[in-house]
């Protein structure tokens, strides 16, 4: 079993080596972090920025892909009036440095040796750690069936659109648009409902592991709906990102 | 040594002699919370001062609103480094509430709906330095900012200005409150930058 | 009540400065109502002025963590116990 060695977390320098735009307001940043200890799918890092005069600010971001040597990827959504995300999404250039602390978080993780079917439910940029799980599944050659329900405003706000469009045996992806849909589209725009989870998820008798990530209200709603459908509380793992982002 | 991120400036940190050391100016009103926001209907609201002798003085919302009202305009300073200038409030001076309170206690423990507490010397509540306020910027004080009523002690860091205030316990010995038992300074003077225990 | 909280996953980084094991995957028991569950499932308020982890069952404080320059303060009074899974 892959296990991150026990050690206390320290801040380490990370140099930006690549940028990929995901949407008009989000981009994926690839960093080189010498000595990176590896991580599990679903873990996050803390990012610290320091200004010339010593002022600093920090935020947490999910790792977007499985461990790959000294390389880690984050996908960052620009928060209007934010302090850290505008720097990461608009100002930072290849070669610039930030500090990272991590990987952290041992609860909201998926391990490839797990045999249970998996339901991923993403709200907006909550798709990032779930994408790391999908990528880890592919990377590890796991045959465990995955279903991803991805709730988002409209087709323009899809992260990883090309990658999720490519057929991946054993993986089903369903988009749940809340504001605007492509035309035609079978499901009218709207927030996630019981039917969405009943049709796009797994029956609770399959005992799937459910991972839910998104804004606090979304996570509460989905967790309640999953309980209503008979999923066991201990099989529902949640991660909320709240008003302190930015 | 921290690594500087090229081009990162962070929030504007303008100076000016009304800003205590280490603070920056905000125009909005940030909300910091240590728990869920209590919703206290005014028909069930009460405010009480308990003395060290066990005497209790109570005010219902109606009794509290019938007291003489003041309109302080003050600068506020949060320990998380934001400051907001010229904030307008309406409420009752603690001098009015303490008028009939017989006490020789030196310390006050303020407590709130929702369980929050904070401590300060009694003298910092008196002589026109503190109010129980129920209006901000001409409007009823919103629950996220401490409504229906909060303490306002603008000369100390803003965590001392307890939201959802419910009462004040007068004590002969200092009794640290919620943040004061978790590393924050027992007094919290922004001009002396008393943020953490030992500052 | 408002839904303006994070969850215990947000404690992972700050606690990783203090402990070599991941505390968020540990099972904590609330001293107030006795509910046991992962620290990752706490309702977390903050990060400023400090992180406050509350029981998802009764909303009482289970854990508080304040990080100042050169010091961290950790209060676990609201946790009766922490069960940490360790490798054999």
UniProtKB/TrEMBL annotation, chain B:
SUPFAM superfamilies: Oxidoreductase molybdopterin-binding domain. Residues 35-179 form the Oxidoreductase molybdopterin-binding domain. Residues 1-21 are annotated as: Disordered. PANTHER family: OXIDOREDUCTASE MOLYBDOPTERIN-BINDING DOMAIN-CONTAINING PROTEIN (PTHR43032:SF4), PROTEIN-METHIONINE-SULFOXIDE REDUCTASE (PTHR43032). This is Sulfite oxidase-like oxidoreductase. It comes from Nonomuraea montanisoli.
TrEMBL record, chain C:
InterPro entries: DUF6510 (IPR045423). This is Hydrogenase maturation nickel metallochaperone HypA. It comes from Nonomuraea montanisoli.
């Amino acid at each position: 079993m892959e296990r991150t060695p026990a050690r206390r977390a320290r801040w380490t320098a990370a140099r930006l080596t690549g940028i990929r735009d995901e949407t008009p307001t989000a981009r994926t940043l690839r960093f080189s972090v010498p000595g990176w200890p590896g991580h599990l799918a679903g873990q996050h890092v803390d990012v610290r920025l320091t200004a010339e005069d010593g002022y600093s600010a920090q935020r947490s971001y999910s790792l977007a892909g499985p461990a790959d040597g000294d390389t880690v990827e984050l996908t960052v959504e620009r928060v209007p009036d934010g302090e850290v995300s505008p720097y990461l999404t608009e100002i930072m250039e290849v070669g610039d440095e930030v500090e990272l602390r991590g990987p952290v978080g041992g609860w909201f993780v998926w391990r490839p040796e797990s045999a249970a079917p998996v339901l991923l439910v993403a709200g907006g940029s909550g798709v990032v750690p779930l994408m790391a799980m999908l990528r880890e599944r592919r990377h590890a050659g796991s045959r465990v069936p995955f279903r991803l329900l991805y709730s988002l405003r409209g087709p323009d706000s899809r992260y990883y659109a090309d990658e999720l469009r490519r057929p991946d045996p054993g993986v089903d992806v369903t988009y749940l648009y809340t504001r605007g849909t492509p035309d035609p589209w079978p499901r009218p725009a709207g927030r996630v409902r019981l039917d969405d989870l009943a049709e796009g998820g797994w029956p609770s008798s399959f005992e799937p592991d459910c991972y839910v990530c998104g804004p606090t209200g979304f996570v509460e709603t989905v967790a309640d709906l999953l309980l209503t459908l008979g999923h066991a509380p201990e099989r529902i793992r949640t991660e909320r990102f709240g008003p302190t982002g930015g | 040594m921290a690594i500087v991120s090229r081009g990162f400036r962070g929030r504007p940190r303008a100076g000016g002699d009304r800003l205590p050391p280490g603070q920056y100016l905000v125009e909005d009103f940030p909300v910091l919370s240590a728990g869920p926001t209590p919703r206290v209907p005014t028909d069930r609201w009460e405010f009480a001062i308990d003395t060290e002798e066990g005497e209790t003085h109570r005010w219902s919302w109606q009794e509290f609103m019938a007291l003489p009202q003041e309109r302080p305009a003050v600068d506020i300073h949060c320990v998380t480094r934001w400051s907001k200038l010229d904030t307008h409030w309406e409420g009752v001076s603690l001098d009015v509430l303490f008028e009939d309170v017989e006490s020789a206690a030196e310390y006050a423990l303020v407590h709130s709906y929702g369980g929050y507490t904070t401590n300060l010397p009694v003298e910092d509540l008196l002589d026109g330095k503190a109010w129980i306020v129920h209006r901000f910027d001409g409007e009823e004080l919103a629950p996220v900012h401490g409504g229906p009523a909060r303490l306002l002690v603008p000369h100390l860091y803003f965590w001392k200005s307890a939201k959802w205030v419910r009462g004040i316990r007068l004590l002969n010995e200092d009794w640290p409150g919620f943040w004061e038992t978790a590393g924050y300074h027992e007094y919290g003077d922004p001009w002396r930058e008393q943020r953490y225990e030992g500052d | 009540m408002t839904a303006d909280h994070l969850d215990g996953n947000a404690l992972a980084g700050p606690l990783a400065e203090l402990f070599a094991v991941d505390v968020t995957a540990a099972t904590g028991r609330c001293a107030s109502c006795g509910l046991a569950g992962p620290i990752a499932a706490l309702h977390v308020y903050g990060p400023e002025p400090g992180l406050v982890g509350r029981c998802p069952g009764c909303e009482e404080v289970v854990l508080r963590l304040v990080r100042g320059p050169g010091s961290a303060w950790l209060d676990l009074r609201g946790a009766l116990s922490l069960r940490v899974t360790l490798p054999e």
